[in-house]
Amino acid sequence: MKIAIVGGTGDFGQGLVMRWADEHEIIIGSREADRAETSAQEMSSMLRGRGIEARIRGMENCDAIEESELVVLSLPYKHARPMVVDMKDSFGDQIVVSPVVPMSRVGKRFDYTPPAEGSAALMFRDLLPPSVKVVAAFHTISASSLQNLDRTLEGDVLIAGDDSSSKQVVADLVRIIEHLRPLDAGDLKVSTQIEGLTPLLLNLSKVDGNGIKCPGIAIVLSCPTEKKIESCHS
Ligand SMILES: NC(=O)c1ccc[n+]([C@@H]2O[C@H](COP(=O)([O-])OP(=O)(O)OC[C@H]3O[C@@H](n4cnc5c(N)ncnc54)[C@H](OP(=O)(O)O)[C@@H]3O)[C@@H](O)[C@H]2O)c1
């Protein structure tokens, strides 16, 4: 599959490139084609050093979108709305993945600060053509963990979207990253709950006594046997 990563020169986008380039053709998008090409060359040579012959190209964001079947919007939230409005005509019927977390810092605390649409993912759905299928995913995965191929990433990736087959495609992208488990969280409105987990995780990691660094999300069974699981929900 051809995957465009808009803002793929940033930490999070580069992490996804590192993890997916062995199996998919990647186009790094940037506002500057030169920056994207340089980044593509650097990532290719880094992966070649690990024996991976990746197909990575770099392009200006709109060209990257037009060439791709799936687009990750790896942009800072505060610039995402005007960027997506500007790029709107480049979209056709792609799957658009949003890892975008609208949050702001209040002193030491991070707050979830969603737009009027309810979440960043819902905002993208409203801004983009109706033929685009927006899927929210990867909010609780850290860029530094993605970028370090020697690091095992454990936990769950919560996926929300209104189109089941698009969510399956994104779930398969999660499965490429060993030990990560994709979980279907429901329709795109659930993105309002998922995006808010990131500031929560950051706040947990800021409290010294918690001893938590680089937190993620893992859903555990609170009932040890199947019988008890049934009774939990009865
Ligand atoms: N970092 C994480 O650990 C993490 C974890 C989960 C989710 N996320 C989400 O992933 C997204 C990307 O995160 P990131 O840390 O990679 O962000 P970032 O490094 O700050 O920015 C990503 C790219 O966006 C472009 N960009 C920067 N400023 C811009 C501006 N003023 N206008 C338009 N484009 C601009 C840049 O690409 P060019 O200059 O090449 O155009 C930059 O390389 C965010 O929405 C974040 O919430 C991040």
SSE blueprint and pairings:
Blueprint: E1 2-6, H1 11-20, E2 25-30, H2 33-48, E3 56-60, H3 61-66, E4 70-73, H4 77-87, E5 95-98, E6 103-106, E7 109-112, H5 120-127, E8 133-136, H6 143-147, E9 155-161, H7 164-176, E10 180-186, H8 191-194, H9 197-206, H10 226-233
Parallel strand pairs: 1-2, 1-4, 2-3, 4-5, 5-8, 9-10
Antiparallel strand pairs: 6-7, 8-9
This protein binds NADP nicotinamide-adenine-dinucleotide phosphate.
Order of strands, widest sheet: 3-2-1-4-5-8-9-10
How would you sum up the global shape?
globular
Quote the distance from N terminus to C terminus.
43 Å
Radius of gyration, in angstroms, nearest whole number: 18 Å
CATH-assigned homologous superfamily: NAD(P)-binding Rossmann-like Domain
| CATH 2nd-level architecture | 3-Layer(aba) Sandwich
Describe this structure in words.
It is a single chain. This protein has 234 residues and is α/β, with parallel strands linked by helices. The protein has one domain: 3-Layer(aba) Sandwich (Rossmann fold). Helix content is 39%, strand content 21%. The chain contains ten helices and ten strands. The protein has an eight-stranded mixed β-sheet with strand order 3-2-1-4-5-8-9-10, sandwiched between helices. It has a two-stranded antiparallel ribbon with strand order 6-7. Helix 7 links the parallel strand 9 and strand 10. Helix 4 packs parallel to helix 5. It starts with a strand and ends with a helix. NADP nicotinamide-adenine-dinucleotide phosphate binds next to helix 1 and helix 4.
